[in-house]
Amino acid sequence: MNAGRDAQRLISGWLEEEAPTRAPDRILTSAAHVIDNTKQRRAWRAPWRLPMNPAIRVAAIALVAIVAVAAAISLVRLPSSSVGAPAASPVSVEGEWDVTFDRAAMLQAGLADAAEDNPGNYGHFTLSLHGGSYKLFQVTAPNASDSGTYTVEDGVFTMNTKTGEKFSYPYTVSGTTLTFGAGGPVTMRVKPWTRVGP
Amino acid sequence: VNAVAKLEQTALVAAARSGDRQAFDVLAATFVDRLYAIARLVLRDSDRAEDAVQETLVRCWRDLPGLREADRFDAWIRRLLMRAITDEFRKERRHQASVVVLRLEPTTSDAASAMLVREQLDVGFRRLSVDHRAIVVLRLYLGLSIEESAVSLGIPVGTAKSRLHYAVEAMRLALEADARPTAREVSA
Fold it and tell me: Looking at beta carbons, which residues of chain B come within 8 Å of A115?
């Protein structure tokens, strides 16, 4: 035991002697040059990581989903001269979508935390939803992008990012707009998305 | 830890996370000496240490928006550094081998003895894997707790304890080995 402690003391002293006290200046210079051409990765922020009782969170998501579904049903029934007609099939989320908003609109939508206030989270975006895969691309600088898979079930759109994170939003599709409710990263829910292609 | 300095650092991290390049440059300048010392100790090679630190800073800038808690920046950047060091260590070695000739100049017996001990420690340390070197540097140079070291390496505490025990024991045995080399051959 003592031999081990003695060895640790000896090693510790040796490391102190061996350690350089100053890094060469060229490290910072070289790193700065690379960083000048390196974009920061988009920050995906999950609101459910904020302090919140899990049971309340589930109930809130369920409530929002129920309200969204009820709203969707009532919209379908509005031109109700066709009462008794076969129920309309749900409108697919598949297609090409587009949205543009500025930082002020993003802040107004409410951030999950301060780190979402990032240039990669506002601007002009396209969202491609096809065959269970999504691709999100920021058309404006700094050209953030993300991709992964998604599922749609009971009015809830769930996206699984390649980094293993999972975000769920209640959503509605009406005409040419796709609207996400509270759930995941702010970018998806600031404004309704407009369909720009099949 | 200076609380004011910690608050300032947290503010810098938050700003850099939002894309403030000047804030990031200040942070990088604050950390670079310490990062380089760790990399140099683990890798035992100045060039590779520089590469590892540069890569760490670039990854830090790129991935900083993903750091959720700014006050955990220290542990986070240490982890980035350890990954970069491991990557650097595993790269094809630039030099097949280099020979370092010891200059055992006539000197007092105490000085010669101290030199021999340093030499034996160096030989013992170079024989360790990069994982074992890392835990030795974190624990015995930086003075981190075993828990903090484990977090920096992304390993369970039990594994960190085991690695440290093995590494110290291996270096102790190297010290006990009564070999007095006049020259040693080491891999770069």
Answer: 14, 17-18, 65, 67-68
- What lies within 8 Å, CB to CB, of B47 at 6+ separation is B94
ipTM value of the model? 0.81
Answer yes or no: do B54 and A27 touch at CB < 8 A.
Answer: yes
Structure tokens at B172: 């102790």
Q: Where are the beta strands (DSSP E) in chain A?
A: 95-101, 123-130, 133-138, 145-153, 156-161, 166-174, 177-180, 193-197
Nearest C-alpha in B relative to A9: B140
> Could you tell me the mean pLDDT of each successive run of 10 residues in chain B, 188 residues long?
77 92 94 96 94 96 88 92 92 49 55 82 92 95 93 91 93 74 44
Residue A98, helix vs strand vs coil: strand
Chain B residue with minimum CA distance to A3: B172
Number of CB atoms found within 10 A of residue A82's CB: 10
Chain A residues with CB within 8 Å of chain B CB: 3-4, 7-8, 10-12, 14-24, 26-28, 30-32, 34-35, 38-45, 49, 113-115, 117-120, 142
| CB A118 within 8 Å of CB B68 | no
Among residues A118, A90, A97, which one has the least CA distance to residue A194?
Answer: A97
